[in-house]
Amino acid sequence: MGMMFRNGSRCVVSCSASLSQRESKFSILQQWSVGRSQSVDGLIKLVVSPVATYMTSATIKLFLPRGDAKSLRIAEISNWSGKAIAAPRTELEELLAREELDKAGVYILIGNDPQTNASHAYIGEAEVIRERLKQHKTKEFWVSAIVFVGKDENLTKAHVRYLENRLLAEAAQIKRFTLDQNQSSGSKLPESDREDMEVFLAHIRQLLPVLGSDILTPIAQHATKGPPGGVLYCRIKNAEARGQRTANGFVVYQGSSAVLEERPSAESYYPYALSQRKQLIDDGTLINKDGLLVFTKDAEFSSPSAAAAVIHGGSANGLIAWKAKNGTSLKQLDEQDMTS
User: Fold this and answer.
1) What is the count of structural domains for the chain?
2) Residues 321, 190 share a domain
């Protein structure tokens, strides 16, 4: 991936990324390995390579009208008939003024549920995106919007209804966000059109992480080279959890268990662990079953220790608590990986 930056208020970032194969549609690349930097004709070029290599390559062009990566952003992929426009809510009027919003497309409003603070989203479609976004000014929760439209006039109402239905289905399955709506009516398309929309959807999956959203990024992802030790185990009393490191921290897999009783010292010295356990119980990720707390879905944590603390019901050193099947601790695995 190459990134090029020029001084001034406008910035264009051109990068090589990776696109999911259609049969691996739930695989999203999240990590980038940054290498050397080069100066070419006054431009700074960062040489960046994707960590995973199982996806076909593609080139992403990211345009920053204000030179600010958190401000209005326009993203395109080489040889793709679509375009993505993202902006914070504070720049809604500037977003609405763009001519691309005269077109049919799909959009995602992103924020947090005001009652639970959980990540929350609204996925919608419209023949004229601008008019639909104006109607969403009354929704309080959202803080940013991402819009996907076609560059030509070939994206029809039937196409965007199909895309909306697919986006809702995937976001609901991945469960990173709660959704304002669970399903749409969708639309029936000819086989060739369905294939075209699946390609369009694959580009949406690829661009969303680049534009700052992991709504379609599975919590547990398959990679060409897995983390040291593969699946790890955390055992205490009669509880056993399975998990492994991820790009964002650590994932505990569905079906894992945690102790039901919390340590007496946890409330005084480790309130964070108790707070996280309570949140997971409240949102249904942890349920009481047969004297244990059982994970009903994959759950991601910021670190191995954060995950182990929830399983132990109090303080835990994740580098020691998590072990490979042969009993080797995560700390030992890390040390082995450094020397290999």
Assistant:
1) 2
2) no
Alpha helices in the chain, H assignment, sequence order: 92-96, 129-135, 157-174, 191-210, 266-269, 271-282, 304-312, 318-321, 330-339
This prediction has a pTM of 0.70
Nearest to 301 by CA among 272, 270, 261: 272
Nearest to 253 by CA among 218, 298, 301, 309: 298
Residues 194 and 237 in one domain: no
Q: 293 is written with which tokens?
A: 């707390």
Q: What is the pLDDT of residues 214-249, one digit of tens each?
A: 999 888 765 445 566 689 999 999 999 999 998 889
Residue 46 has pLDDT above 90, yes or no: no
Average pLDDT over every residue of 7-23: 45
Would 216 be classed as within a structural domain? Answer: no
Query: Under 8 Å CB-to-CB from 228, ≥6 apart: which residues?
Result: 245, 330, 333, 334, 336, 337
Looking at residue 76, its amino acid is E
Give the pLDDT band (50/70/90) at residue 183. low
Which one, of 237, 282, 239, lies nearest residue 274 by Cα?
Answer: 282
Judgement on whether residues 240 and 205 belong to the same structural domain of the protein: no
Domain limits at 300? 232-339
